[in-house]
Amino acid sequence: MKKALKTPTMKDIARITGVTQATVSYAINDSEYISETVKKRVLDTADELGYIPNLVARNLKKRTTNTIGIVVPDVMNSYYNEMVKYNEKITRELDYFTFICNTMHDADIEDWYIISLIQQKVAGVIICYGLTNRACYKKLYKHNIPFVAIDDEVSDEEGEAPCVLLNNIKGSFLVVQHFISLGIKKIAYCSEPLYNMALRDRYEGFKVAMKEFGLPIKDEMVYIAKEDNEYEKIELGYIATKEILAKGKPEGIFASTDQMAFGVIKRLNELKIKVPQDIAVIGYDNVPFSSVISPSLTTINQPIMTMCIQGTDTLFKVIRREEEIKRKITLEPSIVIRQSAP
Amino acid sequence: MKKALKTPTMKDIARITGVTQATVSYAINDSEYISETVKKRVLDTADELGYIPNLVARNLKKRTTNTIGIVVPDVMNSYYNEMVKYNEKITRELDYFTFICNTMHDADIEDWYIISLIQQKVAGVIICYGLTNRACYKKLYKHNIPFVAIDDEVSDEEGEAPCVLLNNIKGSFLVVQHFISLGIKKIAYCSEPLYNMALRDRYEGFKVAMKEFGLPIKDEMVYIAKEDNEYEKIELGYIATKEILAKGKPEGIFASTDQMAFGVIKRLNELKIKVPQDIAVIGYDNVPFSSVISPSLTTINQPIMTMCIQGTDTLFKVIRREEEIKRKITLEPSIVIRQSAP
DNA sequence: CTGTTAGCGCATTCAA
DNA sequence: TTGAATGCGCTAACAG
Questions:
Q1: A1 vs B112: CB contact, 8 Å cut-off?
Q2: CA dist A218 to A176, A207, A250, B1, Å?
Q3: Do A168-302 and A62-166+304-331 have the same topology in CATH?
């Protein structure tokens, strides 16, 4: 059990200052039961020694940590990393640390991370966009780790947990509605694999809306990717467009994520098909780039900041045992109209 | 000191199996000095109880942890988050955990994170794109936390550390060279604030190359943002373009990052200025979107994957005390020619 | 106010 | 091979 050079501990400070280690602890933790003079002496030598508290020891003693885990499919995806950024900020401001858990929708990686987070004794976990491996929810629940799910619903059987939900059904409805308001009825749909509830709901919402407006859904106008391990999301949209155009002539393409929509537009641009004149395109997520691409992308905006604030807020309430919340919050999306479907 | 419900510990397993806690430890850690029969009994009850080792305790005992910190300016930036993703992957495969430290170039946040990482007793730190607060390097060094700097150089005075460097001077040279090969001599330069070595070197490289090719650098053709707290990078490029066009008529614009280049193109598109016919644009970083935007972006490619592998590899060598490395690795960039400057 | 004491859960030395 | 004992560095009763 070799180890780095020793860093000063409370014991060292105690020895030098001529008090007990407990007294040092009081001083460091600014206890009210300690004289100013002793405190000053202790803190001065602590300073001199460059003392930095050992959180591992403190955590062991307190039987809890000031770390949380954030589980996310892919930090490289614009939509997901926005979530990471906001959450990191909120968490940091509460003096908590964040373990980043990038799962790539892989059930085994999810499992490894959840187990490891439990071992690390994290105070809580934020799960963004759902877990492929549903058994993981049970593990967290069983081991008493508070968690919130953002944009995914956790059933009571999997472990009661607060959720911040987005009305994805409504979002898809807004898309179809907008297409129709443009006089577009031949609408194609493309999506990455239906990994999580959000994607399933978007697809479901599309079907519901089409039905509601009395429009048929033709199989050849729907492209749901099987596996995307080999492709980037953008590439997926590109491929989807190829497939769709090979089989039919839509007037509008609804991509279930902006990333895919970028691929769609890329392909259409290459084919010199005019967007939106020949084919209009609508995405979903309103990632920063959607306003940069040309034509700029009409898309569905999600209140990500609000989702994070609500989610983190709820998580910390549970961590602090202020409430035993199982509340579900549902937020509403809105449509952002830009050039690709004006 | 309230606490969550108790989870089973080695002691519990010991009591139930009728052995000592030490024996349980042997079994769990697969020690060679334990009989198969006892080991099986122990592991079985461990399983039954759903035992999960407490890493906090283990870490305290071993006086080291299996966590590292990754310090990065902004996970929402495509260029930076690629680094996070690769590093997370490599680190996870080594059974290590990653604390994400998002600094937004803020010296205070950097300081908070570095101090906290020391408190958390991380095994090492990966610093991407440099720290604004140079004193932080000294702290890590003083507290004996191994670290590597990626795309930043750490002086010996700040604490000797291995670095993975990129030849940013060369990258800028390639840009200027390419402009000239296109017959473009009136080249404008725009950059976000010169936070780190990479950005300073790119600017420096631009000046050096211009000089080498005998071209003048006019003040009005250079836009270095002062502060960008209020703006997104893309917005910065947008603003920079306004400023530059107000003062002159460049034939080419060199943006020090792709993000800024996107803003440049956005503005030019709005003004119906044709890219590259009227003004050619070259970025830097080769982020995934650079191939998606239209016109697609000519840019400088950085071997990010290699940087991560080299960086992490070096860090873990130091962590394992295999070598006391202070080596500096320099990688070379290359130009990717696309439509914006064909 | 300060010292004494007792662990937190685990790994590891030394005996047996 | 297993048990007993020790301590990692810290917090928090409790006693004085």
A1: no
A2: 15, 11, 11, 61
A3: yes
Chain-centroid distance of CA A228 in Å reads: 19
Spatial contact of B298 and B271, defined as CB atoms under 8 Å apart: no
pLDDT digits (tens, 9 = 90+) for A200-257: 999 999 999 999 999 999 988 999 998 766 568 888 999 999 999 999 899 999 999 9
- Answer whether B333's CB lies under 8 Å from B166's CB: yes
Cβ of residue B135 lies below 7 Å from strand C = no
CA distance B190 to B243: 10
A120–chain B Cβ distance below 8 A for any pair: yes
B226–chain A Cβ distance below 8 A for any pair:
no
Measure the CA–CA gap between B44 and B41, rounded to whole angstroms: 5
Peptide bond into B295 cis (omega under 30): yes
What is the distance between the alpha carbons of residues A84 and A311, in angstroms, rounded to a whole number? 12
Say which DSSP state B256 is in.
Answer: S
Low-confidence ranges of chain B (pLDDT < 70): 1-5, 228-231, 324
Please say whether the structural domain B168-302 has been given the CATH code 3.40.50.2300.
yes
Contacts 24+ apart (CB under 8 A), A226-233: A226/A193, A227/A193, A228/A192, A228/A193, A232/A259, A232/B288, A233/A77, A233/A192, A233/A257, A233/A259, A233/A260, A233/A263
What strands lie across the sheet with B222-224, from one edge to the other? B222-224, B187-191, B252-255, B280-282
Q: What is the pLDDT of residues A299-328, one digit of tens each?
A: 999 999 999 999 999 999 999 887 767 789
Q: How far is A53 from chain B (nearest CA, A)?
A: 6
**Closest residue (CA to C1') to nucleotide C9 in the complex:** B57
Is CATH 3.40.50.2300 the right assignment for the domain spanning A62-166+304-331? yes
Which pair of tokens denotes residue B275? Answer: 């890219």
Contact A121, A59 (CB under 8 A): yes
For residue B223, CA distances in Å to B170, B219, B242, B255, B256 come to: 21, 8, 10, 10, 10
Task: Give this prediction's pTM.
Answer: 0.91
The single residue listed with the structure tokens 């049970």 is: A138
**B149 exposure class (CB count in 10 Å sphere: 0-12, 13-18, 19+):** buried
SS3 label, residue A163:
strand
Which residues partner with B299 through β-bridges?
Answer: B336
**What backbone torsions phi and psi does residue A190 show, to the nearest 5 degrees?**
-135, 145
pLDDT in tens, A67-126: 999 999 999 988 889 999 999 999 999 999 999 999 998 999 999 999 999 999 999 999
| A76 neighbourhood in chain B, CB within 8 Å | 78, 81-82, 84-85, 288
Nearest to B256 by CA among B278, B228, B275: B228
CATH topology of domain A10-53: 434 Repressor (Amino-terminal Domain) (1.10.260)
Tell me, what DSSP letter sits at residue B219? G
Segments making up each domain of chain A, as ranges:
10-53, 62-166+304-331, 168-302
